Model the fold of this input.
Amino acid sequence: MKKFFKNSIFYILVVTFVFSVCVHERNSQKVVFADTSSNLPSIQVSGEGIVKVKPDIAYITLGVKTKDQNPQQAQVENTKKMNKVMKILKELGIDEKDIQTSQYSIYPEYRYIEETGERKEDGYIVNHLLRVTVRDIQKLGVVLDKTLIQGVNVSHGIEFGVANEEKYYQEALQEAIKNAQGKAQAIGQSLSIKIDKPYTIIERSTGGSSIQYMDRSIKMNAVEESSTSTPIGIGELDIRANVQVMYQY
Done:
């Protein structure tokens, strides 16, 4: 009887201990530590940094469009002209990896017959577009002229950029932080409060902007070879960075 009584007490103690631990753990999970720093007074400002850069790389989209009543013949003619275009690009120092087909299509063309109000098939068009990266930007005018002579009759513009954009973006980011700090200090002085270190900084990047020129079709044989190349205005790029900064005081 005494042994049974002792064992009962032992089991009761064990169960009580386990129950206490479980209750403690369950209660401890409900404990939430408040972030008291978020309750401190703060101001939020935006900052923008702009770095002007002269472009050192260009992207051009040019192509050959051919038409014939026979789709195969239109394709053959297009291939002949495009081969000449690619050949001159390589002769001008454009690497093969910088010449990429961006579009190739074959489709029928229709003409409207006013008397009957019907559309009648009027041959087939083959359109082949290339996106070309020109890393020696001084050759840009020559590239445009030479390819035009070889059969290019479609152009969808020129886009300028910088090869090492990340470097200039980092500079713009530093300027954006300075711009935000200046705004915060100006607000602090006007309110006679001391601005502390930044509490949060959010990058709202916009990256670099591109300069684009030209979006037109070119008449075939419009340009003849000459000693001068087409002048191209390069201009400047704006590399932008934006930040959102919160200061406490």
